[in-house]
Amino acid sequence: MRSAAQFKNHPIHPMLIPFPIAFLIGGTVADFVGTIGNRPGWSIGASYPLIAGVVTALLAAVPGAVDYFVTVPPNSSGRKRATKHAIVNVSAVVIFIIAIALKSWPPREASAIGLALDVIGACALTFGGWLGGTLVNRNFISVDHRYANAGKWKEVHVAQSAAQSPEGAAVAKADELKVDQMKLIRLDDGTRIALARTEQGYRAFDDRCTHRGGSLADGVLICGRVQCLWHGSQFDCSSGEVRAGPAKEPITTYRVEERDGEIRLILHA
Ligand code: FES
């Protein structure tokens, strides 16, 4: 799913994380060499990349937090993984801050405790990176993928009250999507609904895959079926029924109508 924190369609969080990784691991190595190799200059100098690492980690956390709250599908296995990723990385930064504080200012050589904290922080950072990599490689967070005729990622924010009115809410122009293209509708209460144009017309259904919460608007649409990219479940866009597992529960479908050249989502009972 395309990152919400992006610049010219390039996700910002992955652009920034090499800096804290390089500084914090580099500082740890310098501390290690300085202490074990009896080179005090290395250990004293290690404080500077460690400080730079903490500052750049905090900067990288900002677009990461935006993606956590906006891009990662709520109530999903990806969200749980993203929570772990955030906790582990914030813990690593706190550990490095304590290690830096123990060296005082101007910096002294690292103590045994400070060195141990460096190593623990570096291990936590590595584990956090592994979780982050899984979020990208398996959950497609910040991946703006394309398949035949899928078009570009589209989304629209809509007031829930408008969608619940008898007229419904306008969510797309009638010719906005081509057949087999989708669009994510975000309601202001956090609900996510996928709008899909099939050969039979427009359809709307829960964006959340009933298996582990993958985004269906980020999936693949073909022949009236939508496939979740996380583990391959397929659903009928009209009835919501499962056409292929591992999902077992159907998805909820919603009413859409074309009126005056607009597609309207109608949640009114
Ligand atoms: S989350 Fe597993 S198939 Fe959709």
How are the secondary structure elements laid out?
Blueprint: E1 6-7, E2 10-11, H1 12-16, H2 18-36, H3 40-45, H4 47-71, H5 77-102, H6 112-137, E3 155-158, H7 160-163, E4 169-173, E5 181-187, E6 192-198, E7 201-206, E8 220-222, E9 225-227, E10 234-236, E11 242-244, E12 253-259, E13 262-266
Parallel strand pairs: 3-5
Antiparallel strand pairs: 1-2, 4-13, 5-6, 6-7, 7-12, 8-9, 9-10, 10-11, 12-13
Helix pairs in contact: 2-4, 2-6, 4-5, 5-6
Bound molecules: FE2/S2 (inorganic) cluster (FES).
Describe the structure.
With 269 residues, this protein is of the alpha+beta class. It has two domains: 6-137; 155-266, Rieske [2Fe-2S] iron-sulphur domain (Rieske Iron-sulfur Protein), CATH 2.102.10. Helices cover 41% and strands 21% of the residues. It contains seven helices and 13 strands. The strands form three sheets. A seven-stranded mixed β-sheet has the order 3-5-6-7-12-13-4. Strands 8-9-10-11 form a four-stranded antiparallel β-sheet, with no helix packed on it. Strands 1-2 form a two-stranded antiparallel ribbon. It is elongated and about 75 Å long. Residues 209, 211-214, 228, 230-233, 246-247 line the site of FE2/S2 (inorganic) cluster (FES). FE2/S2 (inorganic) cluster (FES) binds at residues 209, 211-214, 228, 230-233, 246-247.
Distance between the termini: 31 Å
Count of individual beta strands:
13
Arithmetic mean of pLDDT: 93
Question: How does the helix and strand content classify structurally?
Answer: alpha+beta
Main sheet makeup: 7 strands, mixed
Summed up, the domain count is 2
How much of the polypeptide forms β-strand, as a percent range?
A: 15-25%
Molecules bound to protein = FE2/S2 (inorganic) cluster
Q: Give the helix proportion (percent range).
A: 40-55%
Order of helices and strands: EEHHHHHHEHEEEEEEEEEE
Q: Can you tell me the overall shape?
A: elongated
Q: Segments where pLDDT lies below 50 for 5+ residues?
A: none
Strand order in space, largest sheet = 3-5-6-7-12-13-4
Rounded to the nearest angstrom, the radius of gyration is 24 Å
Please work out how many helical segments DSSP would assign. Answer: 7
